[in-house]
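Input sequence (238 aa), recorded before submission:
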Amino acid sequence: MVEERPFSGKLALVTGASRGIGAATAEALASAGAHVVLVARTAKALEEVEERIHAAGGSATIAPVDLAQADSIAKLAEAIGGRWDALHCLVLNAAMLGSLTPVEHIDGAEFAKLIQLNLIANQALIAAFDPLLRRAERADVVAVTSSVGARPRAFWGAYGASKAALDSLLGAYADETAHGGRIRVHIIDPGATRTRMRSLAFPGEEPQSVKPPETVAKAIIERLQSDVETGGRLRVEA
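Predicted structure, token format:
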């Protein structure tokens, strides 16, 4: 008799799923039995992740979407709501780094784009998918944050501000939904991880000196299967 996988019959949506932590988390969720909706801007990169999931015996659907576009999130939620009855896991991973620069030198146009993707789009995703999350017997919302959101660092003001605001937003959502006992919120600080964003921030760093995205994905899966309360923060160490 084949043992049932823990996420069998469940639907998960992962943003920024074309590479890095998003792709690794999507593949881990699929391996655990979930059908995963892969969201990112680039269709070709999403197709590569989808192919790996299918090759491993999993199930996925790609959704090439630019989350910064005003009506894209509402259209995505409408399409998913028309096909599935409930959403069991929403992973908010998509983000941009922006330029690392002193606060007085932050470019206003770039800062607006960063806040749009790192913060406003995530609020829009929660708003659009909250009804589907509430239809699940139990649902989880995972937000990938950064240590600079909690501990400010020189030259990281723009990115850090976006993550600090995201942490506050998710903390409020956790508090607001705690009474129902059906939606849990998890704030995940991945720490130093071998991603494209990390290589942009630390170009002289040896990639092999930091942990791979799969380590973070494993920690997220373990977190989802645990009995932790809503609103908690997890720092993933090597």
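Checked by second reader. The chain has one domain: 11-235.
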